[in-house]
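Anyone? Bumping this.
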Amino acid sequence: MPSDRRHPSALAVFATLSVALAAAMAAGLAFGAVRVPLADIAAAIGRALHGGNAGLVDTLVVQVRLPRVILAALVGAALAGAGTLYQALFRNPLADPYILGVSSGAGLGAMIALVLTASVTAARYGAVPVAAFLGALLTMVVVVRLAGSRGRLDATSLLLAGVAISYTLAALTSFVMVMARQQMAAIVYWMMGGLSAASWGYVAMIAPMFALGIAVPLLSTRELNLMLLGDERAGHLGLPVERFKVLMLATAALLTAAAVAVAGLIGFVGLMTPHMVRLVVGPDHRRLLPASLLAGATVLVLADLIARVVLRPVEIPVGIVTALLGGPFFVWLLVRERGGVR
Amino acid sequence: MSAPAETLLAYRTADVGYAETPVVRGADLDVCAGEIVGLVGPNGAGKSTLLRAVTGDSRLLAGTLAVAGRDVRELAPLERARLVGVVPQQIGAAFSLPAREFVALGRHPHVPRFSAPGEHDREVVQRAMELTDTARLADKPADELSGGDVQRLALAQALAQEPRVLLLDEPTSHLDLNHRMQILDLTRQLADEGMAVLAVFHDLELAGRYADRVSVVADGRVGEPGPPERVITAESLRDVFGVRAVVGTDPVTGSVSVTPVVREQAVERGTRGKVFVVGGSGVAAPLLRRLVLAGWQVSAGALNSGDADQLVADALRVEYPAIPPFAPMDAAAAVEASRLATSADVVVVCEVPFGHGNIDNLLVAVRAKKPTVLVGDIEGRDFAGGAAASYWREALDHGALVVASADEVDPSAALTAAHPSDSSPASGGLGSGPGV
């Protein structure tokens, strides 16, 4: 590899990723238990925009697949965004909401809300995301406190604290499940990570969280770049480091909560996507963050498509797909870096 | 004359430390526009801690600290970053930002929120990179560069901040000779253009060469800053670093030169006898050092001020009669030398030429009638009209040992040879000589 490492232009990156996302979403609409030609999809969406519905296919496309694809895109982008933030704040390419235990925290919060609001469906749309956010935030606080009890947050103690907290949360989650035995099947399925319950209601539920969650970091890409230099150096260059970290950690918790509230625990997207994107566009967050959001959306839309078609007409939870694809991919990354690219 | 320079950094009875524990107490220190103030002192004395208080990396626990007249505790981070640039000891380069973008991060405090860096920012970055000789690295990923390159990039980044105060924390410890001088010459130039520089130096000679004023930080105290030649002295080195050193003036740069001779702790005390050494012109310096280290109480014949042996004797606190540069021994010096020689257990005469100016050194050494070690041969060294050769023979007649070089001098051997049955103060010493 030449020492003068050049990255492709920002325009090329965003154009490619946008096309990829559009193609993935189109495929997500077209394929599934039944195949719908692209022309019919366009027609169905056209009719829906004018308030029309020409039957079953229209309902399938507009009420089932379209919200599902959009939800997959939002969840994927949220997870990738949260992963990018954690990796920047902790300067650790292994940080992601899943590994830090934040996803589990959000999951536990969401599950408690689910169980408590079992009889009132309407309450869920309010309670679940709020509880997920509180769970995520609380977990983050505990993990950071545990890892940084002696002043500095080093990568190893952070990951160890995350793993330890994840186990504790898993135990608590199992406990809640046992207590709410009649809903156990639904909860287990949700925990494995799935988008099968997707609806416009879910989209509306997480859209504001998502919007806020990506707006703040997108306006802070320069500050995120300073964090690459380390806390102390970032401070020298004028960043109020502690305040910024708190803001970004809260934002990442919000993104994680949005994803977990509607799709359960989906691993690897938050870890893999920013890592992969960084290899292509470099560490500059002005490019890395938007590119990761687009890539994360694309990855999850495709993963969800695979989850729907691979055992057609039976669906598997999308979390299984991301883990099955992500695990080996990550191993490949490690091996590739070890082997040294010349 | 120009107007008095503005004080840009002012510590006033400042206690600085971490958490609630002060590392440095009661620091009073000013750094004015246009000057470099150097902090020297042993490791862990608090030099960096003192420096780091400006950026809030260590805590100001009491007293005040002002930057350009403003209390640091009231400076917003961005304001502070426009006033103060820092070059840390070492910068972790765990990132693959291209060098130019790395330096451009230094513009952060000047670029308003929600706007992109403009033409002026690019010019400042380019100039900072040219000054630090890093412009040619612009497109290389910072994490693939050497430590020295990264250190110069860190300086470029600090310069991109266009600060009025520059803080350097041992900025050259990872640099080679060329880049070390380049960085410090540049720092000098920046100070001359009006920057106030506070720098931690681990190298005393660099501090002496580049700092206008130096302050010694030791035992939690910050010494009063003063000109290097007044602050960096043999006494201060002994007190602060526990090192006996020759402190002089570098003949080329005119700045302080420091030659450490022995560590205080390495000197064994009072375990051996007394040795009187006749030297001069630097022939005895290594021997003096070796004997002092081995625990002998060493004295010497008369030495001219400025002579290499005299400087080392001073550093080692060896007692000797001092005479002015190039002057011959006078009666007083001869009497003093005689007193030292007769109170010694062993006398050593080094391979020094003897003339009328120093023949008395040889005379008192021989007439002391002590166990004697002679180094080399008198042949070719007698410029005193035969007197030196005759004293030399006299010494040999009294049973003096002869060794080929000063490295072979062993006072224990001389004692053993003179008192074969005596268990002298030197028994079991530096490889005892053969029993007779």
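Late reply, but here is one note on the structure posted above: The interface with chain B takes residues 3-6, 91, 219, 222, 225-226, 228-230, 232-233, 235-240, 282-284 of chain A (CB under 8 Å).
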